[in-house]
From TrEMBL:
<dbReference type="GO" id="GO:0017118">
    <property type="term" value="F:lipoyltransferase activity"/>
</dbReference>
<comment type="pathway">
    <text>Protein modification; protein lipoylation via exogenous pathway; protein N(6)-(lipoyl)lysine from lipoate: step 2/2.</text>
</comment>
<dbReference type="InterPro" id="IPR004143">
    <property type="entry name" value="BPL_LPL_catalytic"/>
</dbReference>
<dbReference type="GO" id="GO:0005739">
    <property type="term" value="C:mitochondrion"/>
</dbReference>
<dbReference type="InterPro" id="IPR045864">
    <property type="entry name" value="aa-tRNA-synth_II/BPL/LPL"/>
</dbReference>
<protein>
    <submittedName>
        <fullName>BPL/LPL catalytic domain-containing protein</fullName>
    </submittedName>
</protein>
<dbReference type="GO" id="GO:0009249">
    <property type="term" value="P:protein lipoylation"/>
</dbReference>
<dbReference type="Pfam" id="PF21948">
    <property type="entry name" value="LplA-B_cat"/>
</dbReference>
<feature type="domain" description="BPL/LPL catalytic">
    <location>
        <begin position="1"/>
        <end position="185"/>
    </location>
</feature>
<comment type="similarity">
    <text>Belongs to the LplA family.</text>
</comment>
<dbReference type="InterPro" id="IPR004562">
    <property type="entry name" value="LipoylTrfase_LipoateP_Ligase"/>
</dbReference>
Amino acid sequence: MALLLWRNNPAVVIGRHQNPWMEANLNYLLDNSISLCRRHSGGGTVYHDTGNLNISILTTHKNHNRRFNLDLIADSLNANLGTEIIRNVRDDLLLEPGSRKISGTAARISHGRAYHHFTLLVDVCKYRLSQALKSPNKAMISTNATLSVPAKAVGFLKEEVEDIQIDRIEQVLIDAFQSKCDDVVLSPIESISNRTFDGVEENLKLLQSWEWIYGKSPKFSFMPNMGQKQEVVEVENGVIIQSSSPNFLLGDHFSLDSSSHDFACNRLLRF
């Protein structure tokens, strides 16, 4: 088992089978230097900034246990911070009272290996989170892509523990995993290359590409003139394959704003 704790600059990360035009306000992201990424695992869209802690747990497929991981984290935080965090049936972590969601969850299993990862909201900018995830295009798109399920209430650990520091949370989680695992080795990672992880540079190139961030979106229909003369634009692999609108040309990359390739490549999440 490996526990990876990490943070990054502001970013919106969509699930593997999602549509970025439905999940995020792409113009807001560009105007506010917020990166856009698509991850390998499924699930819904999340917002990152330095006020949340990202947690990834890597195991074999045989030892993959989402509920064990979540319960271990909730129990250790409750014991050390005096919080009341519970796991719900969707494998989210909720902060009581009020059932405020402080963490979603996603996982991927491949080639006998598994990783389970989630965000832990500590002191995130609530306004930027709200605006970044508020797409103006949802009503104009029809698709079978995975849709995010907005939480009824969002919580932050700082609401309950005013002087909380992410460094302290990291140590609590490290101690919790050390108590459950033998021969724990702590390895700070400051930079990643093929020397540290074989193939990581090739994978980074993929994650930075337009074809991955936008082109991986499931096929969808875009209807730009809701309530007026009906026009329909059909998009597959991010490319317009059929259009009754003069503003959307066959063979072009689909785009509604300033996003497209330059935004994807130049403002992508940096590890």
